[in-house]
Amino acid sequence: MKISMTVNGKEVAREVEDRRLLVDYLRQDLGLTGTHVGCDTSQCGACVVHVDGEPVKACTMLAADAEGAQVKTIEGMAGKDGTLHAIQAAFQEHHGLQCGFCTPGMIMSAAALLKENPKPNEHEIREYLDGNICRCTGYHNIVKAIMAASGQPVAIAAE
Amino acid sequence: MPKDSVIGTSTKRREDKRFITGRGQYTDDIVLKDQTYAAFARSDVAHGKIVSIDTSAAEAMPGVLAVFTGEDFAEVGGNPAGWLIHSRDGTPMTEPKRPVLAHGKVRHVGDAYAAVIAETAEQARDAAEAIDATIEELPAIVDLRQAASDTSNRVHDEVASNVCFDWGWIEDNRAAVDEAIKGAPHVTTLELRNNRLSPNPIEPRCSIGDFNPGTEDYTLYTTSQNPHLTRLLVCAFVMGIPENKLRVVAPDVGGGFGSKIYHYGEEALVLAAAKRIGRPVKWTCSRSEAFLTDAHGRDHVTKIELATDFDGNFIAVRTETFANLGAYLSNFATATPTFLHGTLMAGNYTVPNVYVNVKGVFTNTVPVDAYRGAGRPEATFSLERVIDKCARELGIDPIEIRRKNYIKPHQFPYTTPVALEYDTGDYDAVMDRLEAIADLSGFERRLNDSASRGKLRGLGISSYIEACGIAPSNLVGALGGRVGLYDAATVRVNATGTISVMVGAHSHGQSHETTFPQIVADRLGIDESKIEIVHGDTAKIPFGMGTYGSRSLAVCGSAVVRATEKIIAKAKLIAGHMMEAGDAEVDFEDGVFSVRGTNKNVPFGDVALKAYIPHDFPLDRIEPGLEETAFYDPANFTYPSGCYACEVEVDPGTGKVEVMSFAAADDFGNVINPMVVEGQVHGGIAQGIGQALMENAVYDENGQLLSASYMDYTMPRAYDVPMFKVDHSANTPCTHNPLGVKGCGEAGAIGSPPALVNAVIDALQRAGRSSVTHIDMPLTPSRVWDAIHNS
Ligand code: FES
Ligand code: FES
C-alpha cells in the first residue's frame, strides 16, 4: 500500500507492506536511523518519536497508521541551522548519555514531558521516564539534564 | 606539563553531538549494497539430540538464498575459551567444542542449529520457522549442585562429568586455612546465591559479513568491545581465514558491559554466508533472542566462612563456590569465576589465611561469562556480606570492623594470601570521605523520620577492592591466560599539526573520544580539539585487546602516553636540527621546543610541518614523518577501591525496598575527566541496584528461561534509583603506570549490591527480626515480606 506523511517537515510517500512498523519505515525506508530498536515488547523506549505532537513508541505503531500525520524524529529536533534543541544541549552539558543508544528516545520523551509539564520536579521526571530504559547512566545525569532544559536549577539536594 | 592542565578537567564529550542529533552509526544502521539477511533456527528445548534437520521447505520459500546447518561447520574449529584452568589435582580442564551451529546435540534453549539467508529479514525469519528439525529431548541439566554430582546425564558427552574444573586457590593454603578455622574463637558462616543476570546493553547485537571475491577480503561489521580479539578468534580458531584477509569494524556500539567482549557464532555465520552467496549478510538480534543467546553473568552458589577472634580481627576466610558456566565455555568464562574472583577474596583486609574453591559446572543454560565487574562483584558480595554478619554476631559496628582489618597505608605494597600484590591504597581515608558525604552522623534522625512514616530504615556499608587494567601478560600467562593482555596506540602527527591517535581500546559509552585527547593534549601542550581518536577498526588501528575489565585508560591510555613520549623524542631531534642544537640540549614545555640557555625556540606546529618537508634533513640521523606506535604491557594489575553506603526504607506491609540514598567514595587514582568518571560510577551503581533488588535470570527445571523479555526481567528504571553522591578525592595514584590511574568502569557494580543488601538486613534487624541474617538477591518485595513475616 502507498502511504504519505510529513516527517521532520518533509512530505514523504512510499509503497509499504501492510505489516511495516513505523520504526522500520523510518529506519529502513527513509534511512532515519536515529530512531533505535532496543526490544520487541514495547518496553525500552529507544524508538520514541512524536506523531502529531504526541510521544509514540514507533515499534508499536504500523507505518500505515501514521498516514497523513506529522512525524518528528530525533533528526528533526535541532534547528535548520543546526542549533541544538534545549534538551539536546542539556544532555550534552550534563553528560546525560554514554553509549548514546537510548538517547534519541530519551530526548523525544523528555521533550514530550516538558510540553506537558514545563517545570517537572525530580519525582515527576523519573515517573515520566517509566517507558525509557537506559543501561549506562543510572539516570542521574538524565534527570539533571531534563531539569536544566526546563530552566530549573540542577543542584539537586543529594549532591 | 602546560600550566592549565587539561587532566582533571570535565571536558564535555565530543561524541555527544552525533548521538543527540541521531547521527550515530551503530552496526544496524549500516546498509551495504545488495545486503541480505540472516535468521536462525534455535532450539526450544534445553537439551536434545538432533536426529534430523529437513531444510527443503525452507529452501523453497520466497527470497531464500541459502540455508546452513551444523553439518556445514563440522570441519571448522570451535570458539575457544581464553583461559586454561587446572583443577586441584593438577589436571587441565577439558574444553568441549563450541561450534558455529549446534551439531549432534542442542545444549540450551536458544542454541542455534540452522540459519537461513534471504532477501529480506522477514523472509529469512519466515523460512527459519519452516525448518523441520527432529530433536529428541533429553532431561535438562539445570540445577547447579545436581549437575555437579550427576555423571550419567551430561551436557557434553565427551566430558566425563559436568564439572569442568575443581579449582583451589591457593591449594597450598588449604591445610593451614582449615586448621585456622578449626581453632578460631569465632566463625561466621553464610550460604548465598549470586543471582544470574542478563547484561542487557540497550543495543542488541548485530553483525554484517561481507566478502569480496576479487580480493578474497572479508569484512565483519559487528557490535564488539574488542574488534582485534574477534578477528583473532575468527581467523585463528574458528574459520581459518588469514588474519590479513579479515577486517573487523566495531562502529558505534550501544553498550556492552561484558556481553560484547566475546565472539559469537553468528559472526562466523554471516562471514561464511557472505562468501557462499557473494553478497553481504546482516543479522540483527532481537531482544528476545538476546536474552536467550547473550552471555549471562554471575550465577554462583557459595558458602563462605569467616574466622575471627572475639575482637573481630580476621583470622581466615574459606569459600566453596559452584559457578555456572552454562552450556559452552564462552571466551572468558573460565577466568571469571577463578582468577577474577578467587584472587580478590582477601578484599581490603589483612587476613592471613584464605582459601577459595570453585567448581565450574556445565548446565543446559546459555553460557555465563564476564558481566560488569566479572568475578569481583561475586567475591566482594560474599566477603562483605559475611563481614556484616560477623560484625552483628560480635556486636561490633560495621565500619569499625572494616577499619580494624583494613590494610594500612604503610603496609603497601601488600601481598595477599591469594597471590596479588596491591601497590597502593588508603582505605581509611576513603572511608572518611564516605562518612562525610553520606552524612552518617545524621542517620538516627532519618531513622526516626522513616519510623514516623511507618517505614523501616536501614543503613548498609561495604568496601571493595578490584584488580583492574586486566593486562599484565606475565601475570595472566602465569594464571592460565592464552593471550597476552597489553594494549597499543599510534600517535600520528599530521603535517599541519593536527593529530590522529589510533587506539586499541574500544569506546561504547566510556568517552574515549574525549578523554584520550586530554592525555595527549596534556603531554604535548596543544589544544584538545586538534586531536582525534580513531578506534574500532582493525584496518585503521595498530592492534588492541579492547575494552573490558576497566582497562582502557590504565592500559591503552598508558600506551598513548608512551607513543606520545616517542613523538616528543623524535620531535626533539627535528627541533634540534631546526635550531642547530643537539637534541640533548632541547627542552619541550607548553608546546614549545627551546634550546636550553638560549632564547631559540620553535613551536610544535612548526616541527610537525618540518617533519613532512625534510628538505635539509640529515637522513642518516632523522627519518621524515612524525608517527609513533607503542605497545604497553603493565607490571601489575591496578587496584581501585572504595567504600559505599546505602540507606533503604522497607515497607513492612508490602516488603518493598526503596533506595533512599546511595553514596560512593572511590579511589581511582588520578582522574582524567571527573564528569566521565562520575557517570561511570552512577551507571555501575544502578546496575548493582538492579542486581540487588530486581534483576534475575531464571530457568525452570526444564531449562526454559522464564525471564526472557523486559516484561519478566526487571530492568532498573529511573524511579528505581535515587540521585547518587559520589566522591573520588581520597585517591592514591597507581604506582606503576605513567598516568597513575586505576580504572573506574566496574566499581559501581561491584560495591553496590552488598551495601544494599546489608542495608535491608539492617532495617529488618532494627525492627526486631533478629533471625533474618541474609536474604538472597534479588530482594523482591515477596522475599522481603517473607523474611519479615516468617522469621
Ligand atoms: S523498541 Fe523497545 S519500546 Fe520500541
Ligand atoms: S546511554 Fe547507553 S543506554 Fe542510555
Automatic annotation (TrEMBL), chain A:
Keyword entries, A-Z: 2Fe-2S, Iron, Iron-sulfur, Metal-binding, Oxidoreductase
Pfam families: Fer2 (PF00111), Fer2_2 (PF01799)
PROSITE patterns xref list: 2FE2S_FER_2
CDD domains in the record: fer2
Limits of the 2Fe-2S ferredoxin-type domain: 1-77
Gene Ontology MF: a single term: oxidoreductase activity
InterPro entries from the UniProt entry: 2Fe-2S-bd, 2Fe-2S-bd_dom_sf, 2Fe-2S_ferredoxin-like_sf, 2Fe-2S_ferredoxin-type, Beta-grasp_dom_sf, Diverse_Oxidoreductases
Protein name per Swiss-Prot or TrEMBL: Carbon-monoxide dehydrogenase small subunit
Native source organism of the sequence: Silicimonas algicola
TrEMBL record, chain B:
Domain Aldehyde oxidase/xanthine dehydrogenase a/b hammerhead: 21-139
Highest taxon in the source lineage: Bacteria
InterPro entries named among the record's database cross-references: Ald_Oxase/Xan_DH_a/b (IPR000674), Ald_Oxase/Xan_DH_a/b_sf (IPR036856), Ald_Oxase/xanthine_DH-like (IPR016208), AldOxase/xan_DH_MoCoBD1 (IPR008274), AldOxase/xan_DH_MoCoBD2 (IPR046867), AldOxase/xan_DH_Mopterin-bd_sf (IPR037165)
Entry-linked Gene3D superfamilies: Aldehyde oxidase/xanthine dehydrogenase, a/b hammerhead, Aldehyde oxidase/xanthine dehydrogenase, molybdopterin binding domain
Keywords: Molybdenum, Oxidoreductase
GO molecular function: iron ion binding; oxidoreductase activity
Protein's UniProt name: Xanthine dehydrogenase molybdenum binding subunit apoprotein
Species of origin: Silicimonas algicola
